[in-house]
Amino acid sequence: MKINKLELKWLGHSGFFICNGKNIYIDPYMISDNCEKADIILITHSHYDHCSIADLRKITKDGTTIVVSADAQSKIGNLNHRIDMHVVELGEEIDFRDLKVLAVPAYNLTKMFHPKDEHWFGYVLKFDDVVIYHAGDTDLIPEMQKLTGFGSGKEFIALLPVGGKYVMDAEEACEAAVLIKPSVAIPIHYGSVAGTIEDALEFKKLCEERGVNVEVLEKEWFSIIIFLNKF
After folding, report:
1. Residues 155-206: pLDDT tens digits?
2. pTM of the predicted model as reported, rounded to 2 decimal places
3. Can you list the domains of the chain with their CATH numbers?
4. 5, 29, 50, 188: which is deepest, by most CB within 10 A?
C-alpha cells in the first residue's frame, strides 16, 4: 500500500513493514527468512507474537535500532547483532529526524491478557505528511480520545486489532475508528493467533456504514518463491 511517499505492508497478525527510505518494522511475527534488514524495529510488548526473537534475528543487523518496553529488554539482549536498544516509557517520544515515534497506552479493560499496570503500548509514527497509529494489543480505551484529529492536515492511518478474545472485536474496533477519525483504518491481529478474515470484513462493513474508510490488506508473502521451491 502506498501512502504518499511511504510504503506500508502487512506481514500478518500485528506485523508491519514501513519504508520511507529506512526499513521500519512493527511487531514482526512469523515472517519469512528473506525479508529486508531493519533500520528500526518497534515492539509493542513482550508477548511471543509481538516480541519474537526468532523473527527479530531474521531482520536485525549491526546498528539496527529496536524500541521496546522495559519488560522486553532482556529478550532483546539475546540477539546476535550489536543493536541500538531504546527502552521507552508511556508518553515518551523518540526523534529519528525524519520520523518521530510516540509510545501510547494499550491495555485491556476487562480481560487479563494485557493489564494496564504493565504499561505496554501502541505507537504513533509521525512522518512529514503521514501519521500512523499502531494500536498494539488493546481494547477500546479512554486514552484513544486524545488521538481524535491527531493527523489533522496529514494522512492519518489507524492499524486496529479486530480479532477479539485478547483484543478488541470488530464492533469495538469500529467504535475506536469512529472515535479517532483516521483517513484510513486497517484491521490487524487476525488470521493466526486469534481472529479470522471474517472479523476483518465485518470491521470494514461496520466502519463504512459509519463513514470510515477501511482497507483490508493482503498479507505480504515474502517467502512464496522459497515455499514453491519445496515442491
Report:
1. 999 999 999 899 999 999 999 999 999 999 999 999 888 889 999 999 999 9
2. 0.92
3. 2-228 (3.60.15.10)
4. 188
